[in-house]
Amino acid sequence: MTRYDAIVMGAGQAGPGVAAAVAADGGRVALTEVDRVGGTCLNHGCRPTKALRASARVAHLARRAGDYGVRTGPVSVDFPAVMRRMRNMIDGMRAGLVDWLDSEDRIDLFAGPSAFDGTAGGVHRVVAAGQVLESDRVYVDVGARAVIPPIAGLHDVEHLTEIELLGLDALPAHLIVIGAGYIGLEFGQMFRRFGADVTIVAGGGVAGREDGDVSAALTEILTGEGVHIVDGRVSQVAPDDDGVAVTVAGGEQISGSHVLVAVGRAPNSDRIGADTVGLEFDDRGYIKVNGRYETSVPGIRALGDVNGRGAFTHTAYHDTAILLDESRTVDGRITAYAMFTDPPLGRVGMTETQARASEHNVLMATLPMSAVSRAILDSETEGLMKVLVDADSEQFLGATFLGMHGDDLAQLVGTAMQAGVRYPVVRNALPIHPTVAEFIPTLLGALEPLA
User: Does residue 400 form part of some domain?
Assistant: First the structure.
């Protein structure tokens, strides 16, 4: 049994920063990690998928070279080379993180599962790598995992999550994606650009949480690239001669070589012995926390995906920054985020649907990307812009940017929202020409009441 000044469960995007801060103050820290340091983002999330996205985008642009007056020969993708490029990048990033942790004398890294094993007198026990660790301060950063839905026959086939998909060395002949959320759409588009046939079964609609016009635009973009989208929910999965057969409610059957399950994520809070210390959860299984990440148990705080306060790398990383500043809380944080299809979808605040259901006096403006001069010049005119504001307070309510640089545009509006900047201030600012961002003032000058 070893006593530490702090135990950090999970070496994702929040955990190492907390461990480093405690160590910098002279404390001794135990840092546990069930898989590989860096968490979902580094190992099978943001970074590897964006490396693959870059390769897929180059292939797409090469095929479109004639649109720009550039002549090329036939374009093909060396899929093993694409995967090697991605893995070399990620392995290098992970090695750098491991080297840094190894250099920290006050941080002990424990590999493998870790779980609570009770608490007494304000001291919490955690079992990791066969050892019992004790501390009065524990920070839980154990993340989330892919949900495997109860579909008949799914466990009878070799189904993939994003983890197994990133481990492939041969391009699937026909990838069937169950789910049309962010993960499903990103992978579906990428693998189509790599040369695979792709079918997306959109049981909850294409990007079902977005407004109808955004969903329709995304559908048009993807189907225009040859992605087949099927409406309906999967009722059964079974092996067949091609590899796997997916049956959609209503009877349509789709045969493919591989099936990716991308229907959502669930917190790993059920894997850490939380009942032994009395942690409380919300109705979705996330650990309940207050604005300072304190749980129902004194001395235990929860950070990152597992606390239900954000499901992104940047929210987990931001949790650490807030935690280490006693003057700050997570309450009132404005979360901007993006889906990295090509073009990307950047989002912050309310959707139009949410604004219509609110009690705000809403003004809205929309603009197709085909009206944006920079998009025209770059021949990337797919998508749209949408901004929502409160007519009475002049505060931003939300924004959606589906189009080139949409991720960065959402960040701009998110910063204005977090700072409480009234929309006329942004409308009257001098924009740079020709940029996509210069049309934010244009939008704000065309606001009208919701019809």
Answer: yes
CB atoms within 10 A of CB 414: 22
* Residue 291: Cβ within 10 Å count: 13
Other CB atoms within 10 A of residue 33 CB? 25
Local structure of residue 286 (DSSP, 8 states):
P
Instruction: Look up tokens 């609570």; give the residue.
Output: 116
Do the domain assignments include residue 330?
no
Q: What is the pLDDT of residue 242?
A: 86
Q: How many domains does the chain have?
A: 3
User: What distance in Å separates the CA atoms of residue 451 and residue 45, rounded to the nearest whole number?
Assistant: 40
The 10s digit of each residue's pLDDT in 157-211 is 999 999 999 999 999 999 999 999 999 999 999 999 999 999 999 999 999 999 9
Ramachandran region, residue 292 (left: φ > 0; alpha: ψ -120 to 50; beta: rest): alpha
Q: What is the spatial order of strands in the sheet that 258-261 belongs to?
A: 228-231, 197-202, 174-178, 258-261
Structure tokens at 395: 């505060």
d(CA 6, CA 20): 11
- pLDDT at position 449: 98
Report d(CA 176, CA 200) in Å as an integer. Answer: 6
Q: How far apart are CA 414 and CA 440, in angstroms?
A: 13
Determine what percent of the chain is predicted with pLDDT higher than 70. Answer: 100
In this prediction, residue 2 carries a pLDDT of 96
**Burial environment of residue 28 by CB neighbours within 10 A (0 to 12, 13 to 18, 19 or more):** middle
pTM over 0.85: yes
8 and 115 inside one domain: yes
CA distance 181 to 200: 10
Residue 303 sits at φ, ψ, to 5 deg, of -125, 155
Total number of residues shown for the chain: 451
Structural domain boundaries enclosing 232:
154-263
Q: Please say if the pLDDT value at position 127 is more than 90.
A: yes
